[in-house]
Amino acid sequence: MDIISVIKQESRGLLGRGKAKILAPVAISWGLLIGTRMVYPVILPQLRNQFGLTLTTGGLLVTILWLGSALGQLPSGILTDRYTERTLMVTSTITVAGALSVVIMAPSALVLFVATGCIGVGLSLYPIARITILTETYPERLGSALGVTMAVGDLGQTLMPPLAGVLTAAFFWQLGFSPLIPGLLLCGVTLWLALPDTSTNGGMDAELTALRLRYVLSELRNPSLIFMTVVLFLFIFVWQTFSAFYPTYLAEEKGLSEAVAGGLFGLFFAFGVVVKPVAGSAYDRIGMRRSLAIILIGPVAGLLSLPFVDGFWPLVGITALVSSMLGTGAITQSYLSELFPDDMRGTGLGAVRTTAATLGAAGPVLFGVVAERGYFDEGYLVLAGILIVIIVLTVWMPEN
Length: 400
Prior knowledge:
Blueprint: H1 3-15, H2 20-51, H3 55-71, H4 73-82, H5 85-103, H6 109-124, H7 127-137, H8 142-170, H9 174-177, H10 180-194, H11 210-220, H12 223-252, H13 258-286, H14 288-305, H15 312-323, H16 328-339, H17 345-360, H18 362-372, H19 376-393
């Protein structure tokens, strides 16, 4: 079968039978939400100047953002099992829009940190509901559907950071966040109108009884889930740490202007627009182990080379290599979703993602401490080593 036929077949499977009206708003809203998250690294130098933050406290700010988006995923998963995905996803977009309004008016660092934590909590309400509704809508093409959704997310991360960098450089940092607020409110209205008002899983008792807790815990003792949680933690640690300081690193260590650094950071996600659908399709066709190992080879090579490369175009090449790590999410999240029974998928995903993401959220603040002591380059070499560990672990990773 030629490539054109494959694309047509995948498109019919993803968009046919009215599925486009679910996939489109889910994907676009996700793009704006994680685009919001990735504006922070671009604006971090201005936030440091205005609020007197060091590299360590700047890293702590990003850690709080990631920590909020991690801790809320378990309760989000439980609520997704009890209520509708629509309710959780609309609440997410409205919460983030409201917290952003507080950030741009923050009179002190304390308010900035608290509002940033609220953004993280708002972000945590969306991912599990997004996965469960796509799992129900695309039982045969979950990898492809998640890959497309995450690619649209990368499109948001591609456009938002450089736009915020330009607006911040030309005017003031608050303008980097301002356009996101009406966009998120519009997404909330669209999700409410487009998504079905039905519970994903009705077979399980709504109350968190002792019986239900035993049931969930028995599923979480699955060796495949424990193994995958470890792998997910390592990857999230690398990903959050890299993204938190890459624009700052390019500006302070590689001599690029802040606007160019923001543009290169956006280019990182532009490559991900291509990588994620390919990674999701690879998962559907060749399984998790091979697709995950292949997708991580480029990031290892890029991170090992980064400290020794200077100049705009060589850094573009390094950014392209590292960007293939963005395909990992389409593989790991598809695998995790298919490991859980239907009646506790949201709770199970929430438990795994909360555990992995909470531990991984320590990455930015730890990296900030290392960078502040003059070990920026060495920090990226350590991240490359962690990715090598993940590749080695895939040898023992069970398939579904």
